[in-house]
Amino acid sequence: MTADTQHDFIEVIHNAIPADVCAAIQARMRTSAQLRPGEVGSGVFPELKHSKDLRISGDAAWRDIDMLLQQAVFRGVLSYLRRYPQALISPLMLQIQDSNGQPRRLAADDFPGMDDATLSDLARTCLRPGAINLQWYAAGEGGYPYWHCELYPRDPAGETLHRHLLWTLYLNDDFEQGETEFLFQHRKIAPRTGSLLIAPTAFTHTHRGNRPQGGDKFIATSWVLFQSAQKLFAGN
What pLDDT does residue 233 have? Predict the structure, then answer.
């Protein structure tokens, strides 16, 4: 890792899922009758995003893939939180009990010694998974060239403002270009089969999906959201 990417809060986890699983997801997607034109927050605008999409969360036929992907993403999120514990403690000012049973603020220094089960419980208490969308970008024409972030205030319930982290899992890499490009970080993340990209959702991580050349691009993507305020602060 170079110095200029050390603290850009973009994490790439290689081999998050096996290549044969990626290939099987692609094959199922290619034959699906449920593919729809890709949408941005306000509708279908091919000049902003040109893709064929398939939402699999909540679809019984895709439950096995949904669970597999969510589990892989959760493992990635735990890795991300170990590197950036502030992703949890800065927004929420979390408390734990000390050795005397007294409450104290959770600090970043607590994370290196935290076992996986404790960190998993903490993550599940504070965060929840978003619905997974599979996306198919055709060579030479598909892409998401519009610079955008993932926070979007149109939803009256504020659900889209609960998005905390974005993630993309690359299902293939047999094409040229097609990178996920981050504007302010000056980084292009080259797709690698089975790799998982995690980054913050705010305008600081404005990004776009470059057009693939010489082959179609397949990804799975969604968000990690905060739990609802009712759940997070029910006891207050």
Answer: 83
Backbone φ and ψ of 117, nearest 5°: -65, -40
Task: Using the predicted structure, report yes or no on whether residue 234 has a pLDDT greater than 80.
Answer: no
Instruction: Render pLDDT for 138-184 as a digit per residue (tens, 0 to 9).
Output: 999 999 999 999 998 888 888 899 999 999 999 999 999 999 999 99
CB 25 within 8 Å of CB 65? yes
pLDDT surpassing 50 at residue 222: yes
Contacts of 58 (CB under 8 A, 6+ apart): 131
Tokens of 84: 């950036």
Integer Cα distance of 14 and 9 in angstroms: 16
**Which pLDDT belongs to residue 1?**
40
Query: 3-class secondary structure for 51-81?
Result: CEEEECCCCHHHHHHHHHHHHHHHHHHHHHH
Q: Could you tell me where the beta strands, DSSP code E, fall in the chain?
A: 11-13, 36-37, 52-55, 95-97, 103-105, 127-129, 133-137, 144-148, 163-170, 176-177, 180-182, 187-189, 196-200, 207-209, 212-213, 217-226
Q: pTM score, two decimals?
A: 0.94
Measure the CA–CA gap between 211 and 138, rounded to whole angstroms.
8
Instruction: State pLDDT tens for residues 112-141.
Output: 989 999 999 999 999 999 999 999 999 999
Amino acid letter, residue 135: Q
CB burial class (10 A; 0-12, 13-18, 19+) of residue 196?
buried
The residues that bridge with 198 in the sheet, in sequence order, are: 11, 167
